Amino acid sequence: MVELAGIIILGILAQWVAWKFKIPAILPLILIGLLVGPIAAEFINADGTKWIEPIWDETQKKGLFPGEGLFYFVSLAISIILFEGGLTLKRSEIKNVGPVITKLITVGAAVTFFGAAVLAHYLFGLSWDLCFLFSGLIIVTGPTVITPILRNIPLKRDVSTVLKWEGILIDPIGALVAVLVFEFISVEGEVGFTKTALIEFGKIILFGTTFGFTFAHALVFAINKKFIPHYLLNVVSLSVVLLVFIESEIFAHESGLLAVVVMGMVIGNSKLDNIKELLYFKESLSVLLISILFILLAANINYQDLMLLYRWETLALFLAVVLFIRPLAVFVSAQGSTLKTNEKMFISWVGPRGIVAAGIASLFGSKLRAAGVEGAEYITPLVFMIVLGTVLLNATTARLFARVSGVFLSKSEGILIIGASRVSRIVAQYLIDNGRHVVLVDSNQSNVNEAQKMGIEAHTENIYSETLKDNVEFNDIGYLLALTGNADINRYAVEKFGAQFGENGSFRLASKTELENSSISTEDGVFTMSDDFNNLMEVTEEYPEIHEFAVKDLDTYHNTLEIIKSDKDQIPLFLKTSKGEIHIIPSLDDDVEKEIDAKSVLVYLGKKIEASN
Q1: Other C-beta atoms within 10 Å of 1: how many?
Q2: Contact 511, 492 (CB under 8 A)
Q3: CA–CA dist 190, 419 (Å, integer)
């Protein structure tokens, strides 16, 4: 009981440490597991026992899981983690991520698959089937390790986008490759790649995809038809995932993981109203399972397994994967793209392996070792070495390498607008037309849909959740505009996200009460000193256009500004200087006003100024 409670407590503590120090959680989790497992047994406990013994030891009368219990738990836990990963894989995103990412998860994955296998074979002398299993496992990077590293590095948007989507899309692909290679290895007898192996391989594909596809549609149908009460939605979904995994395993051994990946992908791309809620639940459950899983897996490694890697070939394999295989995969995949050489170099450097690789490696390595496959004892420690090494390397050097390679953004010019109303969409379109990266977020799906129809990047988000802070594609955001119809939400948005997204300025709409009481000043960070949301909407309904008026000098600017303010159908928004800089009018200081020249324009919303003015 103490050991089980200790794993949960240590796991959540490791997750908190990872959040606090902005590092991938897998790093402290595996280190804790190694400490309470092989390190404690070899260097701390006099009797040579582990502080946490995952598998029951009859001689010591100690252990958490009897017999095959640990492997069953690992299998079920990984099935849930892979299902959650499948939920995030959107068909529309695959179409939109661009040729570089598409090549990275296909051509790049193939380069890693064959290149790493050749290295493992000639460096460690392992059989080709084990080498291909190893290389299939290290294909994956994974969002759980990429996101914490990128979240705190302001990068050029194309670079962060490539790394983010490679991590998301490669997770289920790498899992699928590893499962398929494992099935070839585990076919009984010396039949290798013969007719029997191909039949077993075909059964995995058939039953895995069939069960995953069928049960996914059945669950979506049941949820949409309200056959499942809301309070049972998450637990029923969880039970169906486990059912699919078990049923598929019964019909075709080792097809369960494929089934849950397919199931997650189908549900994630279906029209399901509760998909967000399902994602939040599965994400929370995955955090708990990952916390338990990796302490257990690391603790289950024996010191003798670690000593297998105490040779020069281990360092040679690691360096070759990081300095040769990964760059080769990136440069081949990015050939002919708009990415510059320094951007390709940074993407090549950042390739940490993640949770899926370590989890499946431990599961498959243990099964093959139990089956007596020669060399299987190398699989788990080799993959753990790649995982720990790449995560540690990237977590400590990614920021420095970004500066050295020139992809580090010294100033963030992107604009995040909270609220995607018609006003926000018009303002966003003007800013985009003037070369700014603009992102709209709103909890109203119809507003988001309208923005997306205009070609504006928009996301459905609840600003009271933490998901907005985790989006690595917002790394170039330096301005925050809170333009919703709710004054409290606007204030909350500025307070919560101002430090992260508003380093160059955070602005909100003033409330009607503030305007009536004249209780605001230019220092309060308001978007406009004279209009609230209702005024903006009224003007937008009548005159949904943004205009520019040339102001040749400071006097012309002030005179024109007063004319616009005096007309209820016109609202001043920005000053655009001859350098192309756009300033929100209440934020202007004397230095900016001195830059006004013949090419400067005053930007306003509403009725066009008559020529006589």
Answers
A1: 6
A2: no
A3: 63
